[in-house]
Design goal:
The chain is α/β, with parallel strands linked by helices. Helices cover 38% and strands 13% of the residues. The chain has 13 helices and eleven strands. The strands form three sheets. Strands 1, 2, 5, 6, 7, 8 and 9 form a seven-stranded parallel β-sheet that branches. It is globular, with a radius of gyration of 19 Å.
Length: 357
């Protein structure tokens, strides 16, 4: 089984928003949640630390996810909206505390340096122990919890290593999915601080104008942790070929996502069924990036595993990412290509841009 580096998960968000224990399997959590109706994904979880070990997901980026939204949200939504940046900061720090406690329990290893990453990867490649800790590089999905650009250095000391500026709608620093607009003045200031401390910029969720604005103003390392291709699925959440080519020029890695609405056109939330969506559709997006690049050096996995109600029909837990190997091999991808897509591209990026020790 090939080891996997997943470019985007939300382990702490699902744990704290759903009161879901990530140290027990998704099957156990789903049995606990039978009959609960406070969220659409109740009883349909697909990610846990045991399932990651079973699928040899050795390392991932896992997020701190909180955003500012002053509108009162219905109970069925994930609990990630807060009235002020101070409140979003406090919630994101709580998610970080969850990762730290998991590390104390021996469930995960927090990765902040190249030395940490190499140690974690070598341990997984050397051993077959089913109890090995999963490696986590702490990311931030939406920069709203960064109360101001000058606070970024504090977040760096806390272990944060990559940041996306916004999520859905308008953030404090940029326009996101579903809206239009450039970076805010504070967003440009934040990019300067990101470059100074050596943080990776994740362009996921940026509105198109904000995307181009960010690439123009940020000289540092860039990734797209969880994005699919607009050529296959129309919509502003996907990357156009022009955007992909700009990312290729910046040596970026682009992680393909499992969300059905990003895999196939015409998906309607709450109405469409995953029965006609498969992991082969994810392989189409991986292949499209590889064809544009002319090689396999930029395409990767950024699964963003959520509820089974919007995952492919042949995907049941994160361990099923292993099924991608045979799908891609049948399309002519060689061993070295599969290694690139499954882990080597992410490893190269972070070995280049994490601090040495």
């Amino acid at each position: 089984m090939r080891s996997i580096f997943d470019g985007h998960l939300d382990l702490a968000l699902f744990a704290l928003a759903h009161n879901r224990d990530m140290t027990e399997s998704a099957a156990v959590s789903n049995r606990r949640e039978q009959g609960m109706a406070d969220a659409l994904e109740r009883g349909r979880g697909a990610v846990s630390l045991p399932d990651m070990r079973r699928g040899r997901v050795a390392v991932c980026q896992s997020s701190l996810a909180a955003r500012v939204n002053r509108e009162i949200q219905p109970v069925s939504r994930l609990d990630l909206d807060f009235g002020t940046q101070a409140m979003a900061y406090a919630n994101a720090q709580g998610q970080l505390a969850y990762y730290r406690v998991l590390e104390e329990m021996g469930e995960v290893t927090l990765i902040g340096t190249v030395e940490d990453l190499d140690r974690q990867w070598e341990r997984w490649e050397r051993q077959s122990d089913p109890g090995l800790p999963v490696g986590i590089i702490v990311s931030m999905e939406c920069a709203d919890p960064i109360v101001g650009p000058d606070q970024l250095e504090s977040w760096w000391r806390d272990g944060l290593r990559s940041v996306s500026l916004t999520h859905f709608g308008y953030g404090q620093y940029a326009a996101g999915t579903g809206v239009e607009g450039p970076l805010t003045p504070r967003g440009r200031q934040l990019l300067s601080r990101l470059a100074e401390v050596g943080m990776t910029l994740d362009v996921s969720h940026l509105a198109e104008e904000s995307f181009y604005d960010a690439l123009d103003h940020f000289p540092g390392p860039v990734i797209a942790s969880h994005n699919n291709c607009r050529a296959l699925v129309p919509g502003d959440r996907q990357l156009s070929d022009r955007m992909i080519r700009l990312l290729l020029d910046r040596s970026a890695v682009i992680g393909s996502v499992l969300d059905a609405w990003m895999l196939v056109p015409g998906w309607v939330h709450g109405e469409s069924s995953p029965e006609n969506v498969t992991l082969a559709d994810m392989a189409d997006h991986i292949d499209h990036v590889c064809q544009l690049a002319g090689n396999s050096l930029h395409s990767a996995i950024g699964s963003d595993v959520g509820g089974l109600n919007h995952m492919p029909s042949d995907f049941h837990t994160i361990a099923d990412l292993q099924k991608l190997e045979s799908i891609l091999a049948e399309r002519g991808y060689a061993e070295a290509d599969l290694d690139n897509i499954f882990h080597a591209n992410w490893l190269r990026h972070f070995r280049r841009w994490l601090p040495e020790s």
